[in-house]
Structure formats: C-alpha cells, structure tokens
Amino acid sequence: MREEREALLSPLATRSIDSRGRERDEVPDPLRTAFEVDRDRIAHSKAFRRLKHKTQVFINPEGDHFVTRMSHTLQVTQIARAIARALDLNEDLTEAICLGHDCGHTPFGHTGEAALSEYAGDKEWLHSEQGVRIFRLLEPKNLTWEVLDGIRAHTWRVSPPPHTPEGWICRFADRIAYLNHDLLDAVRAGLVTQKDLPGDVTAVLGDFIDDSWIGRMIDAVIEESIGRGRVMMRQDVLQAMRTFRDFMFERVYLRPESRAQAERARTVIHQLVEHLCANPDQIPDSYRRADDPVQLQAIDFVAGMTDRYALNLHDRWFRPRGLV
C-alpha cells in the first residue's frame, strides 16, 4: 500500500518499486519502502552520529550556536523535504540522500578534505566518494542504488550529476543551507555585517534578516522547477547565489585567519596519517580491511574522526604531557 501511494506522485518522481536495487539481495521490509529503510539505516549509523562534532566552517568552535555538520545536515534535509513536497517528488528518497550526504566528511571541514587530497595523487579526495565508501564497505548498510548515487553526486564538483530529481534537490538544498547559515555564523563572529553584502545580491534577495534568504531561494527552485519540468533554480536567484558564494569565499572561507587555522588543521591531519602508517596496529579493526593498503586504512580512520577526537589524539601522540 505504501508503494502504491507513490503512484500518486509526480511522473518525474523516483518510486521505490522502480529502484535499481541493492548490491546484496534482502527480504523487503513489510512496513517500510526501500527508501524509508535506507533513511533509517543512515540515521542510526555511527557515521551520522559523528556529524555532531564535525566542523562546518569554524574549527572546533567554543560557542553553542555555530553550525556543525549535524545541524547543517538537518537543515539541508528540512529544505530538501520542503522542495520535494512542493514538487510532488519522493520525500523519503530525498530525506535519505540528505541525511547521508555529508557522512563522509573529514574533521576540520573542507580543510581536512584538501589535506587528504595530497595523498590522492592526481585525483581529488572527495567526501562524497568517502560517504559511498562508508556505507558500502566500512559501515556497510546495503543501501539502494538511488541513495548512494545521490550521496555520490550531491556536490557540484562531481560528474556525472545525480540521476534522480531527488538527488538534484539535495544539491540545491545543500548550497542554500550552507551559504545562509555560514553567513549567520560569520555575522555572529563579527566578520561580516549587513552593509558588507554585495548590492547585486541584496537587489535580488532583499536584506539579510535571519533566515529570510532561505525561503526566497527555496521558492526560486520550486517556481523554476514547476515551469521547466526538472529541478532547477530561477536564473536571477541562481546568479545572486553564485555571487553570494564568491563573497563568502573571499570574506569568510579564505580570509587570512582562516588560512592560518587551515594550515594548523592540515598539519594535524598529515601527522595523524603518517603516525598511523608507521604504527598500523593503532588503526581500529573496523578500518583494517585486509585488501586495503595501510595508508588507505589510515586515511579511512582519520577521515572518520570528529574535530575533537582528532585534536585529542594528536595531543596524545605529539604533545605528551608530563615531559620537562
């Protein structure tokens, strides 16, 4: 009956009964659709729980109200469900993708991701790929193809893009959430004021008051998607969001203080990986896959750490107390 209700969704929606399936066959749940099962598996995973102590922008912040990966993930999920409901797409698939989209993120935000890229040769180490690796191999949940595809392609740097409209919703919801809440954090930290915002952004989105831009961006996705028959954002708002993103990189993400902090975080990541490569017995069993090189096992372990765990472990190994 639950699957039959999905027939009432938009013709563009992804239906659980049409899923490409799971890597390993399993008996279907009698009460939940396949996408509902995936949503619950992700929400109860260790990787999801670790998000509460992973950085969004400010590394290991002391204040209570700075955005973490957990609060960001919940905000992305709320935004995405609002869009999916308005467009009559599959909310359960949308929620599963959004809950899992950042589970592969490193400690210290994108700084940690960049630090691990230095071990990837001519490739870029991507948290989206790590998220898929976690749920396929490190903490295997046997998720459906559609959920894994949405996690893989939620970041705009990845090609090919998502194969489902629900995956595209996660792309837009992720950017809407992080730009707006990172700006709130920057205002709270005294880095940016209302008068600093680019005029061509406020001309389209209005004054930035609390979360007012979020609603306008959501509306721009819904309106354009209805008119075009696929998930898109109205062009004027999309351009304003791009300008807004450039502003955030210049004034917040790449400010001199942030670069100095990022270099310290990079050092922590590298020293942890090198120490574990030299001492593989200190890698937990859950990351010691027999067929993987030691360096990959070390990277998997470090990538899964929270900010505070990485810093505490680094202190233990490189700043031992009690020495004269």
Structure description:
The protein is an all-alpha fold. Helices cover 58% and strands 0% of the residues. It is built from 15 helices and no strands. Helix 2 runs parallel beside helix 5, helix 4 runs antiparallel to helix 5 and helix 13 crosses helix 14. The model has no long low-confidence stretch (mean pLDDT 92).
Give, in order, the helices and strands. HHHHHHHHHHHHHHH
Helix fraction? 55-70%
Quaternary class? single chain
Number of strands: 0
Mean pLDDT reading: 92
Low-pLDDT stretches are none
Task: Report Rg.
Answer: 21 Å
- State the major sheet: none
CATH topology descriptor: Hypothetical protein af1432
Shape: flat
Domains (count):
1
**Helix/strand/pairing class, anyone?**
mainly alpha
The CATH class: Mainly Alpha
CATH superfamily annotation: Hypothetical protein af1432
Number of helices: 15
As a percent range, the share of strand residues is under 5%
At a glance:
This protein has 324 residues and is an all-alpha fold. It has helices at residues 2-5, 34-43, 46-49, 69-87, 91-100, 109-117, 127-138, 145-152, 165-188, 199-205, 212-228, 235-253, 256-278, 294-304, 307-318.
Please name the defining characteristics of this protein.
324 residues, mainly alpha, Hypothetical protein af1432, 58% helix, flat
Q: Helix and strand layout, with pairings?
A:
Blueprint: H1 2-5, H2 34-43, H3 46-49, H4 69-87, H5 91-100, H6 109-117, H7 127-138, H8 145-152, H9 165-188, H10 199-205, H11 212-228, H12 235-253, H13 256-278, H14 294-304, H15 307-318
Helix pairs in contact: 2-5, 4-5, 4-9, 4-11, 5-8, 5-9, 6-13, 7-8, 8-9, 9-11, 9-12, 10-12, 11-12, 13-14, 13-15
